[in-house]
Amino acid sequence: MAPVRRIREAEKLLRTIALTIQPMTREAFAPYGEIIDERGPVEIDLASGAPSVFTQTVEARPMEFDFMGRHELTEQVFSPLGTSSSVIAVAPPSGDGSLDVKRLGAFLVDGSCAFKLHRGTWHTSAFPLAESATFLVLEREGTLEKDYDLRDLKTTHGVVVRIQPE
Fold it and tell me: What integer pLDDT is reported at residue 47 of this predicted model?
């Protein structure tokens, strides 16, 4: 019984951060990445690695998270397939690898354009606003196996993040 009690006491120490969903504009998204639309080409840094292109489908789930990941060696591109909308949560990259929870953002991915995440941008998987959302993803081959830094926000920052619906 004692371990259960300790868990409950630790959970009381967690605080919840509430994020408001904002439109994904060039200016607002700039600290985290770049919007790819009709305005021309965007350079993608794969750190001399081979490109990997695949589809990723995410299922609807509660808009709450306590983990974020990042990739130090590569940028990633996500291009929504179809017309489904979703929300992505991000935190900007930092020179020392830290995650600044005060700079978290939640952006509406309305399906009208692709977006690129800068190297080191902390991010969640997308939160579909319908049953699911599918993306075409471009990244460096082996990214998830060799270049994935996952951070537990409960143990490192004492927080859980909730995205407020629009």
Answer: 87
